[in-house]
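Example complex used in Figure S2.
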Amino acid sequence: MTHLADLPAHEIARRIRAGELRATEALDAALERIRAVDGAPGRLDGGRDEQPDKVHAFISVTEERARAQAAAVDARLAAGEDPGPLAGVPYTAKDIFTVKDVLSTAASRILSNFKAPYTATVVERIEAAGAVMLGKVNLDEFTYGSSNESSAYQPSSRNPWDPSRVPGGSSGGSAAAVAAGEGAISLGTDTGGSIRQPASFCGVVGLKPTYGRVSRYGLIAFGSSLDCPGPVARNVRDAALTLNTIAGPDPRDSTAANAPLPDYTVALEDGVKGMRIGLSPDYDKLTFFNHDTGKMESREMPEEISKAVLAAAEALAAQGAEIVEGVPMPHTRYGIPCYTVISRVEAASNLHRYDGVKYGHRSAAKVKDLRELYRRSRAEGLGQEPKLRILMGMYVSAAQYSEQYYRRALQVRSLIRGDFDDAFVAKGAHKLDALLTATTPTTAFGMASMYGDSVLMQFADQLTVTANHAGVPALSLPGGLSAERLPIGIQLIGPDFSEATLLRIGRAYEVATADAAWRTERPAVLAQLK
Amino acid sequence: MAEEISPELFNHLVELAALELTAEEGEYLRGELNNQLKAIDELAAIEIPEGTPLAAHGVPFPPELRPAARADETSSAGLNAEILAGAPETDDGYLQVPGIPHEELD
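Predicted assembly (636 residues):
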């Protein structure tokens, strides 16, 4: 029998609303799972190598708050009220979202004592729909990374499929928690791939919505023109259900689009007959930086990842989709250089607010004046990755260099957007409903194998970052297992506000592969449980 | 290839960024910065067609997608006490800071 902690969110909500299960029971099962697999939470004084067989998804487990929420859901049901479409579903929030009266750390020492005076819109909305927050999960410091290892809260999260490997990042705690049954869904954020890359590494579903589809209010900012909150889930229906609750206009975020909000679950089972799904050779080539030569190098995609993408295309074709090969996306390879410029400029700007005056860490050192207080507080409070991003952002946006870097990057961004416009436009040559690619250039890599090399780490996002530049939605789905029994992710990218279509294709892919042998495999940390 | 960011330029950036670094940290970060600059050097080689606009964000944001402007009225979030409670040092409802350095302007 499936353990309650492993049930899909939609099934938990159905049972609770039907009176077959109490919200408090669903919560107990999730807390029991956390106790079984998570180990010590990330802490400022924690060690990197502590309990290397545990998941360490959490920074804080907010059990008391969760118990009150679950009891409230049960009370509403007892009173004959509808507690909402996610009634009693245990979820986690990446610790980059503010939650009133709960520590909101961004995995940084500089916010280690920060209790937000207000709650992020997405958290408010998912809880209004009845979901119960288990706690805040770990991430790369301020979301700056692709492995979780840059978190100031150690031990950082590990991959439930193989705890000697990273869960990806920056929403690594989110993906690891969902994969390990520590909550059915998690709220993450995606600036260059931070929902999809960890979802891919951990074998779960991750959706980066269209920029503006979901409010950023209460999201501690990284790259304000790129940041997108979105769901991590174990299946497509749960992602759709979550998007239903969190998306839509928000008077507190002027970039939250006033676009019609469909019910993302309605057309999920309608299949892909007649849909045009593209494959691009430009997503089957990888680019890496060679430190020895100082040059960029092309590499082949690992064969088992390419094969997974082709197998997905065949599975969708068998369901009636038309596969369009050879779609040119010529600016894909510039995604990372362009991102390295734009995201650092925005990060530097957003990080200037941390100064030890208004909130957060303040140096206890005796200082002679305000400037020294700023310097000391920032030096003590910020880790290396934020410092690096501030310095880079300041350099490439400085008056004398911005023509060469920042302005140019913004133009290249237009060209990347143009690739997608050409692929999707109704009167174009390809008229795609979606582009099908791999999510990541590798499967999950080993802990400490890349951390410290900021250039190499950045290239982990090369297949995901283009969607952030273009603002278009993208969905990562589990697409099989590698020979090392590590999850492979496949990605669907669609035109603006096409989340319903992407989710529908994703669901069709789930149906087509329902009997695949890899679907029966479980993460190693769960296989060990009795 | 020559290092783009020399130790002098790096120290200037650190000063502007209101940071303080140990020697070891500075050396590592300057090395990473120079590596990153090499990795983005490719941008300089891309042919950019005349008139390519600067994309401040990817999704076009036509007026119909923008939220209606709210009335131009001020309101308080009513959070003064909570916000002050989170500040490192306050005095009688004000944020407290050490002395502000004064510089004589030429």
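The mean pLDDT of chain A is 96. Chain A has two domains: 4-276+435-527, 336-405.
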